[in-house]
Amino acid sequence: MRVVILGSGVVGVTSAWYLSQAGHDVTVIDRESGPAQETSAANAGQISPGYAAPWAAPGVR
Q: What is the pLDDT of residues 29-60, one digit of tens each?
């Protein structure tokens, strides 16, 4: 089976590797020149709930 993966971050590259090991013909497409150039490298997708004020904090209305 021919498979196209959009994005060469951690998930895209890992998916491509596993699919190729399973015998699929895999093509990875990314707008950057190499793997892990955006969210995987810069960690821009990180969610930091520790920096959010809790709803039950004093002074929160």
A: 999 988 888 766 565 556 666 666 666 667 66
pTM of the model: 0.62
pLDDT of residue 35: 87
Where does residue 59 fall: left (phi above 0), alpha (psi -120 to 50 degrees), or beta otherwise?
Answer: left
Which are the contacts of 44, defined by CB distance < 8 A and separation ≥ 6? 38
- Within a domain: residue 9? yes
Does 51 reside within a domain?
no
User: What domain range is 16 assigned to?
Assistant: 1-30
Could you please report the per-residue DSSP string of 1-61? -EEEEE--SHHHHHHHHHHHHTT-EEEEE-SSSSTT-SHHHH-TT---GGGSPPTTSTT--
